[in-house]
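Comment thread on ticket #2218

A.B. wrote:
> Attaching the input chain for the structure job we discussed in standup.
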Amino acid sequence: MKAMILAAGRGERMRPLTDYCPKPLLEVGGKPLLAYHLEALGAEGIREVVINVSHLGEQIVDWVGDGSRWGLQVAFSREFEPLETAGGLLHAAGLLGEEPFLVLNGDVWTDYPLSRLTARSLPADTLAHLVMITNPAQHRGGDFALDSEGHLQRASKQTPSYTYAGLGIYRMALLANAMPGKQALRPFLDAAIDAGQLSGELYEGAWEDVGTPERLAALDQRLRTAAAIRTE
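C.D. wrote:
> Ran it. Output below, let me know if you need it in another format.
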């Protein structure tokens, strides 16, 4: 199974930090956010990884190199401007192929065990399987509802909602009707929900969307404190 890490965004809410450093290379716990994903993918036995880059993208290319230090083969999908998630996936289609692949947002940190995704057999009629989390303080409204059979539904006032964790398995067929260019993923996910072709699971472990300098600093402190406790 291949994996794609989404790393092309500008990180506007992280400015001024991201004026000079791409968001996935911001450090928490003594190493870049991107390192945690690469380490987890290598440990899980994933060998082929695609990273899309745009804003300050050559910094990411230079830092990652060929991926061999994590046991990976890394290819880069360069975007002249950030194409958003659907546009970025479609732009990288030639590198990803037709088989289901992992997708990881480059600006999240989590201890989610990737084995839960790599061990999953995605049914032929399912276009994507998304990891959901309990709504964090910065996103109380959530994204989707999750029924008892593991199907994702549109959120409503009548059902509990959850937040997409930026982790999942996708088929490129999800974007079968997409045209090249900048475009968001949500309309394609909603269409898959309406067709009964989107599944999900709830993860209740550690997760953080590093969306502001304050959240970055808080996560950095937590990881450093945890590391100090482990070495005592």
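A.B. wrote:
> Thanks. Noting for the ticket: The radius of gyration is 17 Å.
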